[in-house]
Amino acid sequence: MKATTVLVIFFLFSSMVYSYSQSDIELFQLSDTNRKKAEKLFILGEKHIDNKEIKKAIKCYKLAIKYNPVYVEAYYNLGRIYDKQNKLDKAMSQYTLALKYNPKYTKAYNCLMSIYKKLGRLEEMAKHYKLAITYDTKYSWAYFNLAGLYFDINNTADAIKNLKLAIKHSPQYSDSYNNLGVIYWKHGKLEKAEEQYKLAIEHNPKHVVSYNNLGAVYLQEDKLAQAEKQLKLAIKYDPEFYYAYYNLGLVYLKQAKPEQAITQMKFAIKNNPNLSDTFNNRGIAYYQRQWRN
Predict the structure, then answer these.
(1) Structural domains in the chain, sorted by start
(2) Closest Cα partner for 234 from 247, 221, 217?
């Protein structure tokens, strides 16, 4: 019965905030009139996004680019729209244009890298994250996501290194501590894993995944009362988090409480019918109950 710990890999999608930039203005010599038209269309496009009027937003951004062909933010926002529509080629094209006109526009790197990850183009993903970091050495999300890439290819040393850099530059983000804890847990360093999960919770007292993972560590150490407490907190803050129900079921199995174990496994299956280990351990709980009877 193996407790489940969860690695969270998040890609940051910054909100559509207007920050006017004219990186190659000398190439186009924009008139004040065209610049103002583009700006008004961009702001109107954001209003359409807020109102979920996507087609109108696309039209506004395209017109803004027509008046200002180096409008980095317009390319970026178009990329985000296409990204959400899963039109990945179009999204990549817009992000690439944003970076063409402003190679230091790090938000576009992060979104572009998420597409590379979806497409399994890991070498390009790593290359562009590193490029983003050269323009912004304190870009914590690039370190965070680069660590996720290294984790996926079992490059533990570089994963740890980049997570520590992410924590250094953004110590308030609980996900970095959690993911570092997962790496330590994976390599049997339970004390270090426990320390990182506690730090994640310290920075975010409702960090559900870290409560679950801390509970999993305690379960592995047979600290069942402590495990139960942490897993119940995970469920308190997210009543649909199936891993916490599953792990709590394992706690009850170890405590020879088959009825409670069956109840938790049922909740886990309800919230994720594809969690195969749950069915197996629910079967064990039924067998344990029959045996005890």
Answers:
(1) 17-102 (1.25.40.10)
(2) 247
